[in-house]
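Run log, item B.
One chain of 416 residues. Sequence copied directly from the ordering sheet:
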Amino acid sequence: MHKEIIDPSTIPDIHMDWYIPEIILLKNSEKTNIDNIENVDAIILNGGEYTTKGDFICLMKKNPKVIILDDTNVYKCKEIRQNLLRDSDWKLHKENQRERMDGVFLSQIKNKLYYTFFISTFKMPFYFIKNNLYILFLIYFIFSYNIFSYYSFNSYLFYNAKQYNMNCIFICVFNQEQYVYMFFLLLESIFIYGNLDENTNILVYTSTPFMNIIKNSVLFNDEKIKFEINDTYNDIDKACKSRLDLFNLSSASKYDKFLYLDTDIIVKNDVNKVFHVCTEDLLYALEEERIDSDSDCWGKSLFGNEIHNYVDKTAFSSGILLFNNCEKIRHLFSRINEDIIERPRFFSCYDQPYIVYNAFKYNLYNNKILKSYVVNNNYNIHTDKVVNHFPGGPGSYHHKMQKMTTFLNDSKHFYY
């Protein structure tokens, strides 16, 4: 009925494990058009903790004669109850305020026919005059115990669909626990803004301890987040190069397209826009610097004299990589891994120079098209870019966390 949710900064003792799923539901659901409904007999409010107030505002325009509120002792309906008690047009008929989650309230508009019944979340004696009241109660019961419970919400939003044309957001989290918390910022942004459909999963390549931390988070959803485990990567070099293991992972064969994301990223728009770009068997990446840069983060020393063979020397960042699950890209990943073994060197950007060099060598890259969807170090929360990358050197997480947190919080406060 609406897309409104309370600003979290105005809510004391906010439960983010309830607030975030409600944002996701609003973002991924279509509005129900109730414009053609002029009058209703009764409304039952037992929706989201932080969206029910918006439901109330919408439904009060439909001239209800009876209002039933659940959870009137907590934020969901507490203010609504108080407003109705102060309103001289409404008369309290029955309520139960004995327990925190048992707060139930029934009010009738004065001088109107009303139905009498009492509802408790855990005890359900009720009285009714007309048969359709029983139907109303059944609707209340179904919604109370299924659609609006947090766990059922997850299964409702992310149902098990036929596995075809599957997309995968691939993320690696190793070495330092701080990167798990950076990953949480990325994950929250994906759930809020990414518009994940039933054919897109998030594959997290990580260690057992980090997997357990993720599974214990309020953000974890086992329908959308899948794991591949490696407990041997305990330094930054292995952590950075872990993405090159992708095609050796057993679950890789389930997916048709991959979007690899570094953890220092905030998603701000529909990720399907990015997946739709991937129409050829190429490595799609964001243009960045040049292959002849003296910093050698883009492979200058690997190219040697070959560097003169390329007219366009614009390189790319390896922080965002989009590609098909195809023989050409699998071969490219294999050649990159072989190159790392055959020409071992220390680069401050670890595997990025090898990725750039081999993508150039085999002419398997496009570093232009993603400029419409991806941006580095942009702090404009009104951006239309899908992927907002906050690079700043591998292993440097403090300033990245600060930038990402500010960007995400400012975005949420503005839009919600």
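Observations after the first pass:
- The radius of gyration is 26 Å.
- DSSP finds 13 helices and 14 strands in the chain.
Flagged for discussion on Thursday.
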